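debug: dumping io for the single-chain case to check the tokenizer round-trip. Nothing else runs in this session.
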Amino acid sequence: MALTPWPHLFHLPLHSSSSSSSHLFFYSQSQSSPLLRITETSAAFSPLKVSSASARCYKSATEPDTVSDDEAGDRDSVKTANGGSVTVTTTSFSGDSLSLGIREPVYEVEEVKANGTISIRKINRRQLLKSSGLRPRDIRSVDPSLFLTNSMPSLLVRENAILLNLGTLRAIAMQERVLIFDYNRKGGKAFIEALLPRLNPKNMNGGPSMPFELEVVEAALLSRIQRLERKLMDLEPRVQNILAVLPNKLTADILEQLRISKQTLVELGSRAGALRQMLFDLLEDPEEIRRICIMGRNCTLKRGNDAVECSVPSEKQIADEEEEEIEMLLENYLQRCESCHGQAERLLDSAKEMEDSIAVNLSSRRLEVSRVELLLQVGTFCVALGALVAGIFGMNLRSYLEEHVFAFWVTTAGIIVGAIVGFYLMYSYLKTRKIL
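debug: decoded output
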């Protein structure tokens, strides 16, 4: 007895504009029976839409193809066992494919060229990487969207660009131009004010000009340190006035001004300290300085000793001179930054000492108040003892003392003398124990 194979059933719903639903069933029974059979639940149905370009159905591995392609359209005719046909219309969606990639950010930057021209442009990340020769991870240090995470100042040197992150100033310096992010912020405006005079040939006084990227670095450091120094100069007299007033005048307004000034000094000192550390690390790394010097030249750095090799001897000499100039430049701004940081630390120490003095003064006043409270409590205790005696004699019980004329005066005098003696004894005891 031959085994009959289990029928294979495929159920495809066919969408129709009519209210009645249509379904298409494909199933196979045996090799002798046809492969395709169609059961319709509705007479009218719309063609089945398939995402592929064509649909083909085969009877078996040994039988020929029963699908014929029509050149007039994308229609496939499938022959059934009864000789009929079913037409299936297919639609291609190759032109409507959706892009699932992440949208690239577009930066609005201010471009300053070596001749001093300024323009505002929009550039996406891919164009920025292609024009500057940077890698995606390099852009993170100057990306304005990562302002909170990349708050530490940095100066990154790459083969064709220098990335500057100095607080609110974020820029990419190249050989003939510089791109400034967030150019409307204070850092960007101060940088533009410091850079443009340096690009004017009238301000060079006939001396040799530095390369454009070095002018950008110096203008960035100058604008940043000048802002710190200006803020310190505005804050110093205010702190001095508060320190002069505080010992004699303790009010809520003065203490609030001291708190705000102290908070500003802490912030100023941290910024100056971070910038100082960046300059110090840069001076301690001669490779970074040499990489700045060889930008735009046919020079390379030897591995091991970081020596500069140039195809033209004159370029090597110029690179060595620029290295010394860059070191002197960084040393100058490092000293100015240390001076600013030191002055901020001194003012902060003075404010902390004043806070300690205020705390001591308030503690001494609280101690005096506590001593007065203790004396009052001792006096109240002694008077309470006298009130206890008076309360005893105030009971409505006969003691026969009321029959004597001088009993009242003697009792009153005894209460007063007892209270005074008790207060003196308590005061002497507290004085001996150094409580008062």
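debug: round-trip ok. The chain is about 45% helix and 15% strand.
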